[in-house]
Design goal:
The complex is a heterodimer of chains A (321) and B (284). With 321 residues, chain A is mostly helical. Chain A contains 12 helices and 2 strands. The relative contact order of chain A is 0.13. The longest helix of chain B is centred in the middle third of the chain and has 14 residues. Chain B has 10 helices and 10 strands. In chain B, the strands form 2 sheets. Chain B has a 6-stranded mixed sheet with strand order 6-7-8-3-9-10, sandwiched between helices. A 4-stranded antiparallel sheet of chain B has the order 2-1-4-5, with helices on one face. Classes of the chains: A mainly alpha (321), B alpha/beta (284).
Chain lengths: 321, 284
């Protein structure tokens, strides 16, 4: 009977093979073509965006009737007043400084807190509480950023900052920075937690067996072993903070100046672009073109950050894997 | 009786002693003359509602090698993990009965497990070096227990690596990553790491099962050398290994202790039919 079954199976296989092989090959071929096209599409789109940015930036720098604009004066200038005064000034550093100030505040708020939350979730929290807290964090991640902007203006500034110091006006870098920090917190936390949970249990066991407390295990084994993932999480979150637009447009004010004072108004690169594109700057005007140069600067900064991140990651990976 | 929650003073009260010279004048005595290190009476263990160990009575002699043998799932690893309370990390694991180390109740809820694990080192099935340098791996335990001086650490690391027969192979690259070592070297590093905290006992959970024959031979040689200084309990699937390295053997089957005794007797003249079938390779 077994012999009969084997014979039947062999017959079916023989009958089935040539036809199904052809079908399978065609199917595989078409799948491969579709995937290849989609991959090309995303790469081409990205490249097109970079080309548009570069071309418009070039036009800004070579604009007729503006001999004062040069690459050097743009990247080293500390005055940014494109709309006011007889002579518009295009020095991008105040916008970069504004962005860095807000990003730094956001990082100080979100990175330590996010990492510690992740350590709690991954190492300390009982399973049921972990699930509940993760769900809460996901809700936080789903809040539209404009809501954080409102939150900054209507809660963080009047309820937290103004009672502390009278130097805080309606808009401040601090208020926007805290809101951006809250916005990137779920990213930091969830990516760090993934990195921590990817550390094999055998390392924890090894550390416990040497007489480690839970804190020893977390701080001396799990976090160092997950460092590459944690660094990646931090960099991704910071890149996100640098590019954040809505919160800073609402809460940081609109004054572009060089400052490290968190209570003052600042304008970030993204907020400036919002101002130009939503304002009444004529599309042919030099200030309109300047927003492309600012966008290109922003792109260079985030690109550099990603690149540095990749280098750092590779170095840690060599050491730890 | 008051049960001491601190088993002995922290390691910095007792300066690092040479592992080789710790008990220099003590010759190996016949099994009967050794006092028990581990003693269990009517010991039961459960994972949730599932009972994995049933009414075990067993004595493990001081400074001897005791092998736990038996087919997979017979509970030998579970028993091993109660001796240093590693089962605390497993939700739903519990135990009842008597299990003591030199008279100290190991099932006491108020027992300081951190201190216990300082006295009872453990080596795992799969080598699990930390993603740190060789030096930092061995120094991990001493640093936990507040040995910070560089010279003390260097001395301890060298002694521990010598004790685990790894020193000559790694002495020139102590600062390179432990993950660059071969599997057998990693396992000896894990033994060095356990030895560095100055335990009196070593638990080994199938320490050679992930290693090639040559590395296995070096670990077995090491176990034979270490028993001069440590009480060793080794869980193994390999009967030849048990007969090569152990002084006494305990055979477990389906959560029960079937037979225990001197290794040469248990292998050549088992009293129990199941033991005989297992050690002769008829099942398992």
């Amino acid at each position: 009977m077994i012999a009969a079954a084997a014979r039947t199976a062999a017959e079916i296989a023989q009958r089935g093979t040539p036809c199904s092989l052809l079908v399978r090959r065609r199917f595989e071929g078409s799948i491969r073509a579709v995937l290849w096209l989609l991959t090309c599409l995303s790469v081409v789109t990205t490249a097109a965006i970079i080309v548009v940015l570069a071309v418009e930036t070039y036009r800004f720098f070579t604009a007729q009737g503006h001999p004062e604009i040069s690459v050097w004066s743009f990247f080293s200038g500390t005055e940014w007043s494109p709309l006011l005064g007889a002579q518009p000034l295009f020095g991008v550093l105040p916008l970069v400084a504004g962005t860095l100030l807000v990003t730094t505040i956001a990082g100080v708020v979100a990175l330590p807190m996010g990492l510690m939350t992740a350590v709690y979730l991954s190492e300390y929290a009982p399973p049921r509480r972990r699930v509940a807290l993760k769900a809460a964090l996901e809700v936080l991640a789903g809040v539209p950023t404009v809501v954080y902007g409102f939150f900054a203006v209507t809660f963080i500034t009047p309820m937290l900052l103004q009672p502390l110091s009278s130097s805080f006006g309606t808009y401040s870098a601090m208020s926007a920075g805290i809101a951006v920090g809250i916005m990137i917190l779920p990213i930091v936390c969830s990516l760090c937690e993934d990195a921590l949970r990817a550390v094999p249990q055998s390392l924890r066991d090894g550390a416990y067996a040497l007489g480690s407390t839970k804190f020893d295990v977390s701080a001396k084994v799990v976090v160092p072993a997950a460092l590459s993932g944690i660094v990646a999480a931090f960099l991704l979150a910071l890149t996100r903070a640098i590019g954040e637009t809505m919160i800073v447009a609402l809460a940081a004010g609109g004054l572009a100046h060089m400052t490290a004072d968190p209570s003052s108004q600042v304008q970030t690169m993204t907020a400036y672009m919002v101002q130009i594109f939503l304002g009444d700057a004529p599309a042919a005007g030099i200030e309109y073109k300047s927003s492309y140069a600012v966008a290109f600067t922003l792109f260079l900064i985030t690109f550099a950050l990603t690149w540095i991140g990749a280098i750092v990651l590779r170095r840690y990976r060599e050491e730890y894997e | 009786m008051m049960i001491p929650t601190t088993l002995r003073p922290p390691i910095d009260h007792a300066p690092p002693t040479s592992i080789d010279q710790r008990r220099p004048d003590e010759a190996r005595l016949p099994a009967a003359a050794h006092p028990s290190a581990i003693s269990m009476r009517g010991f039961n263990s459960w994972y949730g509602d599932h009972q994995v160990l049933h009414a075990l009575d067993l004595e493990i002699a001081t400074r001897q090698v005791c092998a736990f043998i038996g087919p997979s799932g017979c509970g030998k690893s579970t028993l091993l993990r109660w001796i240093n309370r590693m089962n605390d990390t497993i939700p739903g694991a519990r135990a009842a009965g008597t299990l003591s180390l030199h008279g100290i109740d190991l099932l006491d809820r108020s027992l300081d497990v951190v201190d216990l694990r300082r006295r009872v080192g453990m080596v795992f099935q799969k080598p699990n070096p930390f993603p740190k340098s060789i030096f930092d791996n061995v120094a991990f335990g001493p640093r936990l227990h507040r040995v910070y001086a560089r010279t003390d650490l260097e001395e301890l690391v060298e002694q521990s690596l010598r004790a685990s027969a790894l020193w000559d192979e790694v002495k020139d690259r102590l600062d390179s990553s432990a993950l660059g070592l071969s599997g057998g070297q990693q396992q000896r590093l894990c033994i060095a790491r356990a030895v560095a905290i100055g335990p009196e006992m070593l638990l080994m959970d199938e320490p050679c099962s992930a290693l090639d024959p040559r590395s296995t031979a070096s670990i077995e040689q090491l176990i034979r050398e270490l028993r001069a200084s440590y009480t060793i309990v080794i869980v193994t699937h390999n009967m030849q290994q048990a007969s090569r390295v152990s002084d006494s053997t305990a055979f477990f089957y389906e959560g029960r202790l079937i037979e225990s005794g001197a290794t040469d007797l248990l292998f050549t003249n088992p009293k129990n039919r199941q033991t005989e079938d297992y050690v002769t390779g008829r099942f398992g």
